[in-house]
Amino acid sequence: MKPVRMPSRYAVRAAIAASLRHGGASLQRTANQLGVSARSLQRHLGEMGTSYSEMVAEVRLDAACHLLVESNVRISDIALRLGYAGPSSFSRTFMRLMKIQPVIYRRQQRNGKALHDKSSPAASQR
C-alpha cells in the first residue's frame, strides 16, 4: 500500500477556510481538497490532538474576528458567510468562545486599534 502524505495543520485550516468561502466546510469537501479520504483526515487530526469540528470552529472564529474588526460587514452577513444557521446561532457561539458579544468585540477592537494608530510614531508623521 502506498503511504499517503498527510497535510499539515496549516493546510487543513486553509482548506477549511476555502471551503467556507465556497459554501460550507464539510469533512468530505475538505478531505477531497487535500487529496485524502475523510476517514484518513479524521484519524490524522485525532493523532494531532484535535478533531475536524474543532478545526472548523477555530477557522470560523478567526474569520469572524477578522471580519468584525477589519470590515463593515453586518453580523447577520458574517454569520451566513461562515455557515451558521443565523445571526443568533453565530452570536451565541461567539459569546461562548470569546466571552463577549460580537458587536461589543467589534467596538472594543476598533477603539483599541484607533487609539493604537493615533499613538504610533507613523501616525504623528502624517
From TrEMBL:
One term under GO cellular component: cytosol
InterPro entries: Homeodomain-like_sf, HTH_AraC
SUPFAM superfamilies attached to this UniProt entry: Homeodomain-like
Domain HTH araC/xylS-type: 10-108
Gene Ontology terms for molecular function: DNA-binding transcription factor activity; transcription cis-regulatory region binding
Domain of life (superkingdom): Bacteria
Keywords for this protein: DNA-binding, Transcription, Transcription regulation
Protein name in the entry: HTH araC/xylS-type domain-containing protein
Source organism: Pseudorhodoplanes sinuspersici
